[in-house]
Each structure stands twice: as C-alpha cells, then as structure tokens.
Amino acid sequence: MTPPRTQQIPVVVLAGFLGSGKTTLLNHLLHNRAGTRIGVIVNDFGSIEIDAMTVAGQVGSTVSLGNGCLCCAVDASELDTFLETLTRPSARLDVIVIEASGLAEPQELVRMLLASENPHIRYGGLVEVIDAAEFDGVRERHPELDRHLAVADLVVLNKTDRVGEAERERLRTVVAELSRPAAVIPAVHGRIDPELLFDPALRPDGEEKIRQLTFEDLLREEAGEEGCDGHGDHDGHLHAAYESVDFTSDVPLDPRRFIAFLDSRPEGLYRIKGFVDFGAGDRDNRYALHAVGRFLRFVPQPWARDEQRLTQLVLIGSGIDAEALREGLAACRAEPGPDAPDAERAMWGVLRYVQQEPDPEDVPAEV
Ligand SMILES: Nc1nc2c(ncn2[C@@H]2O[C@H](COP(=O)(O)OP(=O)(O)OP(=O)(O)O)[C@@H](O)[C@H]2O)c(=O)[nH]1
Questions:
Q1: 100 in ligand 1 pocket by Cβ < 6 Å?
Q2: Domains detected in the chain
Q3: What beta strand segments (E) does 58-162 contain?
Q4: Sheet of 183-186: strands edge to edge?
Q5: What is the pLDDT of residues 294-317, one digit of tens each?
Q6: Where is each CobW C-terminal domain found (predicted)?
Q7: Which atom of ligand 1 is closest in space to residue 24's alpha carbon?
Q8: What is the mean pLDDT of residues 28-45?
Q9: Torsion (CA) 145, 18, 136, 140 in degrees, nearest 10
Q10: Distance between CA 115 and CA 102 in Å, rounded?
Q11: Which of 6, 54, 72, 162 could be stapled to 133 by a disulfide with Cβ–Cβ 3.0 to 4.6 Å?
C-alpha cells in the first residue's frame, strides 16, 4: 500500500523573455522526466494558447491559465484553484512547473506562490531562461531584466549553439554577476539535467537562495511597485509595452505571400509563433512557425487525423500596427479554386527556413 502523501509538491516557475526557449526546455523536461510526474501550468500571452498547444499531449495535467500575463489575468485565488487541482492526491504529481508568459514579471508569480495558502505546495524556485544570442539586445531594451536575474534561483543560458565559445564564456560571466549566487547553466535546446529543477537541494546554492527570497523580501523589493491588482505600477511591467495580435484562418495561406509578409515584417514585431496551413503546398503537414527577432524557422509537423486545418498565429511586438498586421495576414490567404499547378514550387521560400523537429538526443544543427 502506498503511504499517504504528506510531502509538499515543489512549484517551479519557468520564466524568460519572449522566445528564450521556455517551452523547449519544458518539453525537454517532459521527455526526460525519468518517472517523475510533472504537472504543467502554461501562462501564454495572446489569446490563442500556442504554448499550451505546443506542450499539449505530452502530459496529462496541463492547465492553461488563459489570456495574458498571469500577474494581471489571474488573481491569486485563480492560481490557487489550478494548484488545488494539480495537488489532489489522485494527480500523484511530484513537481509542478509554471511556464510564465515571456512578458510576465516573475516576481509577481513568485509572490503569488509564496502567498498561497495551499498546504500541499512549496515554492520550488525561479528558473530564468536566457537567449544567449539575443541577451545584450534584450537587456538594452529592457534593463528590468537585471532585476529578474537578481531573483532567479537557476539561470539557463540557452541557445549557446548560436554564439561562439568566447562569447558564451563572456555571457556566462556577465549573467553570473547579475544573478549571483544562482547557478548559470549553459544549454542548447534547454537540455539541462532535470534534477537541477526537481530537487532544489541538489543544485548549487539552491536552498540558500530560496531561503533568501521570502515574501517579505519581495514586498520590500517591490516597494512602490505594488503589482497588478489595479493599484500598482502596471506600466512598469514588460508586457505593458507590448501588444499581441492573434490571427486565425480556416483558409490556407499562400506560401509566397506569407513569406513576403514575413520578409517585410516591421522592426517592432519581436515574436511570431503558431501553426500555418499551406494547403496544397503540403497537404500532410502543418508548419510550426517560430520567429524571434530576425530569426525565423518552420518545423513541419504531420496533421493529426481529424484535426481541423487551421492557421493560428500570435504576433507580439511593441509599437506595432495591429490592424495593418491583421490585414497583411488576411491578404496572405490563398485564392479559392483549384490547386495551382506549381503549388509545391511555391513552398520553396518556406523550405529555406525549414528545420526538422530536433531529436532531443541529437546534437542540433547550426542555425
Ligand atoms: N538554435 C537554437 N534554437 C533554440 C534553442 N532553444 C530553443 N530554440 C528555438 O527558439 C524558438 C523559441 O523557443 P520557445 O521554446 O518557443 O521559446 P519560449 O521562451 O517558450 O517563447 P515565448 O512563448 O514566446 O515566450 C524555437 O524555434 C525553438 O526551437 C537553442 O538552444 N538553440
């Protein structure tokens, strides 16, 4: 007979700027959990829950928190409801991971967890994921990232395949300085040892840092910036400066038009993610799209049987003209009528950006 559960389940917050690799890391954990039962709460930005769809099917207990930044869209009682569901003995979870929206303020999430009255959970630490190739630029635009690093318990310096060895070491030193005493782990495709997250006692300085980050510390740190309960300085949060645009179409997109749209995307459009149906261009696959800054990638994924063929995209940026983007996307819809004879040739522009889904065990190709 299994003994009754008395242990508290650690709740780990996974944070990091847009496109840094949070979902990738989460998927790595789900693939390499070695029997550990992981509950996932995804907090996506944009009303189409792309991240929830990306991790969906990989874990039985995925709960999406719905639209927007967690600190605004969900109050503590709502978060508690999700946590209550996931901490039921029948869920038999060993750890819960909350993937924060790339625009959420991690301190808000941590504050909510520390304030939670759920007796079955304990705060499991804040993991901050960094895109090595974008770090300097993001930091320049968002100096508040230094503050996020300062409260992290573990920093994953991700995408080190996109920078040289010397640059990786430079970044490691800079990040370590900002996040001291948290450990900084360089990674490619978020492949870190899951034990770094699941057993905080095992990670360098972990316990000490968790003790440091008390509710009172956070309150003190946030003095003058009350949070998102309607009384605070909401404008100071990263997401206040960003806007998201959703686009859904049940008409396939014309590949040439869509590539032309992507090639001329405005500077402020920092992130695009979702799935594209190219219709006759490829009847077998939908194309997962990831754009971060000027980086662009498509990953073909077979359509599931009976899956509704839709294009679903979320575009996130600052100073973007939402209406113009929606119109631009609408103009990418393929003309009705019989398939064009050169439908496959029209895909060449897309194929330039195609990369197969990386096998977690493979060394990734250079991008
Ligand atoms: N080259 C390279 N690409 C990576 C690595 N990790 C993730 N990516 C790619 O970066 C893109 C963004 O990764 P995601 O995991 O979706 O990032 P995210 O932080 O969840 O993004 P948001 O949901 O927008 O906040 C995807 O195309 C990933 O395949 C890496 O280590 N190296």
A1: no
A2: 9-236 (3.40.50.300), 242-351 (3.30.1220.10)
A3: 62-64, 95-99, 121-131, 154-158
A4: 62-64, 38-42, 95-99, 9-16, 121-131, 154-158, 183-186
A5: 678 898 999 998 889 999 998 887
A6: 242-333
A7: 15
A8: 77
A9: -60
A10: 22
A11: 162
